[in-house]
């Protein structure tokens, strides 16, 4: 069954051996191709290529945004250290200010530690391979959660697409029912017109009935719509089978839709009949609704 390109998945995990809370959030929206945008902690920058490859192995189409949060959990405070270089620079500047402006008194510790940058977070040491093992499984779990949502939405899309395909088929049946009568009416009209022209030119006696029937048949054959109806019906059959397919069917469905548009346009050109022309307009309306819905099929 088809699935939607729109989905959302989120998972969280607290590492047992560390006071670390990790969460992964994946969002997917419509896109012609597969594009992945990452929002990662800085220390995970070396893992970007592997993470993009992992996501693309699970998704064929859509614009995906992956958010990763890696933070200290409850009970795991941030470790601070003194930036000696910054503190030393502040001390030298304060000493210069005292001399320049002849300020008396010592520079106390409270003043120094209140200045920005004197304290900084201790740089965490990360084992990237260990972190990748954790991140990889969380991303897979988030993608699977997103896929569940996409499949549920895909069921609703499939129902709508199948209903519209049925509506197209109903209109096509009306055209097929009308086509034989329209062909016979066209033959009679052509026969009458050609006979009138030949009579006006005094050539009626020179052209036999068989030759006249042959010419009428040739002209009528060029306006026959049987092939277009057969191909359109075949496309509808394939359309239904692709919707039931378990793989990504978005591109194949779009291709079939283009072919159906082509057949309907040819029907409109060949119609030469008010009833069929009106039904062609209905077909185009339904095909346009199909096109809009299929923008969200993966």
UniProtKB/TrEMBL annotation:
Protein name: YicC family protein
Alphabetized Pfam families for the sequence: YicC-like_C, YicC-like_N
NCBIfam families: YicC/YloC family endoribonuclease
Coiled coil: none
Keywords: Endonuclease, Hydrolase, Nuclease
Organism: candidate division TA06 bacterium DG_24
Lineage, broadest ranks: Bacteria, Bacteria division TA06
InterPro entries on file: YicC-like_C, YicC-like_N, YicC/YloC-like
All copies of domain Endoribonuclease YicC-like C-terminal, residue ranges: 175-298
Source organism superkingdom: Bacteria
Required co-factors: a divalent metal cation
GO molecular function: hydrolase activity; RNA endonuclease activity
Family the UniProt entry places it in: Belongs to the YicC/YloC family.
Domain Endoribonuclease YicC-like N-terminal: 2-158
TM helices/strands, residue ranges: none
Keyword Hydrolase set for record: yes
């Amino acid at each position: 069954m088809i699935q939607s390109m729109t989905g959302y998945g989120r998972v969280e995990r607290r590492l047992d051996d560390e006071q670390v809370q990790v969460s992964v959030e994946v969002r997917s929206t419509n896109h012609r191709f597969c594009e992945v945008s990452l929002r990662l902690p800085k220390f995970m920058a070396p893992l970007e290529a592997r993470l993009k490859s992992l996501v693309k192995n699970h998704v064929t189409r859509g614009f995906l945004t992956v958010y990763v949060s890696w933070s200290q959990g409850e009970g795991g405070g941030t470790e601070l250290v003194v930036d000696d270089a910054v503190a030393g620079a502040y001390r030298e500047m304060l000493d210069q200010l005292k001399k320049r402006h002849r300020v008396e008194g010592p520079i106390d510790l409270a003043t120094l530690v209140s200045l920005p940058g004197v304290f900084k977070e201790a740089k965490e040491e990360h084992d990237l391979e260990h972190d990748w093992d954790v991140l990889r499984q969380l991303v897979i779990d988030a993608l699977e959660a997103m896929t569940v949502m996409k499949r549920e939405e895909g069921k609703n899309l499939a129902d709508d697409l199948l209903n519209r395909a049925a509506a197209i088929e109903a209109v096509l049946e009306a055209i097929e029912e009308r086509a034989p009568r329209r062909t016979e009416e066209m033959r009679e009209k052509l026969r009458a017109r050609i006979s009138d022209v030949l009579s006006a030119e005094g050539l009626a006696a020179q052209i036999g009935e068989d030759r006249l029937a042959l010419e009428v048949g040739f002209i009528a054959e060029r306006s026959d719509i049987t092939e277009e109806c057969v191909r359109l019906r075949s496309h509808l059959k394939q359309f239904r089978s692709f919707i039931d397919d378990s793989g990504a069917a978005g591109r194949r469905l779009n291709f079939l839709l283009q072919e159906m548009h082509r057949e309907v346009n040819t029907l409109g050109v060949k119609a030469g009949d008010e009833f069929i022309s009106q039904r062609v307009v209905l077909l185009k309306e339904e095909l346009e609704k199909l096109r809009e819905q299929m923008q969200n099929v993966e």
